[in-house]
Amino acid sequence: MKGSTLTRADLCEAVHxxxxxxxxxxxxxxxxxxxxxxxxxxxxxxVKLSGFGVFQVRAKRARMGRNPKTGEPAAIDPRxxxxxRASQVMKARVDKALSREx
Length: 102
Known about the structure:
single chain; about 100 residues; alpha+beta; HU Protein, Chain A; 2 domains; two-stranded antiparallel ribbon; 5 strands
């Protein structure tokens, strides 16, 4: 995996190297996995990946905000947002990896 961003292509290549399926099958596998996650979130379900974290949809209420350009008050409509909470395992691994870089 190159660069500072992990892409779908990087995931497909990693699956190809690890599992040995064709690149086309690996791409289909990654796409299907992501599609199932999206469908679950659209249905308002949580997506929990053990050792990784939890994705969940939260409802945000309507509120008053400010236009940053003018400073005028502006109404912000209610909306649904996706949140991610990393597992303790993931937090520990990232912390350990980052502390080695210092």
